[in-house]
């Protein structure tokens, strides 16, 4: 019942308003609990067990980004009169920055790419459990540290090093979109990525390395346990056969 209610759509032509109502609900609930982290952390397991659909979680999260700005506004209102103007300006910058992001990434369906990105990362993590840890380390530690280090000599160094990578990423995204939408527009060789070495198009080689480095002991124990279980089963079967032949009944 909860699943049906939360994921329901408005009937008829009003269906397009459902997402915007979800944004308002997310903003209101976040205002009540005064924490977007609590709100999203509470809903994330519900998405994982299938109670809330990912497409519905997206506008709720966007609304949460608006609701969390009320904390800064309330704090600004509590400041003294001499600094009230400055603190309110900062608080409203936070508010309108988040509203601008929503206006960019939600009204136009084609720009809601965080949803397929979330599905992509979720599928990769489901197949390769180490992927989540590597992703966090790269995105939250290694990548920011690299950008900071490149920015120290000057913007031209950052642009010279990061520019080619950004250009390649844009080209790859364009090819991926054409592969999905209009593959006939591409040369035969570019209709898939099989022409690339496997480490450049699949995580399987890295997964084998991770298994050997981190999980080899566990697999060996599992193998040994299986062999022991097999031997125990054979001995038990032999004992049951012997008991049946010798005494006319089977002992368990």
TrEMBL record:
The record's similarity note reads: Belongs to the SLC34A transporter family.
The Gene Ontology biological process annotation of the record reads:
sodium-dependent phosphate transport
| InterPro entries in UniProt | Na/Pi_transpt
Q: What is its main location?
A: membrane
By what name is this protein known? Sodium-dependent phosphate transport protein 2B
From the Swiss-Prot or TrEMBL record, state where the protein is found. Answer: Apical cell membrane
Keywords (alphabetical) are:
Cell membrane, Membrane, Transmembrane, Transmembrane helix
Q: Which GO terms describe its cellular component?
A: apical plasma membrane
Lineage top rank: taxon: Eukaryota
Positions with biased composition (Polar residues): 222-236
Which GO MF terms does the UniProt record name? sodium:phosphate symporter activity
Membrane topology annotation: Multi-pass membrane protein
Which segments does the entry list as coiled coil? none
Q: Please list where the region (Disordered) is annotated.
A: 222-252
Stretches that traverse the bilayer: 20-46, 89-108, 128-149, 155-175
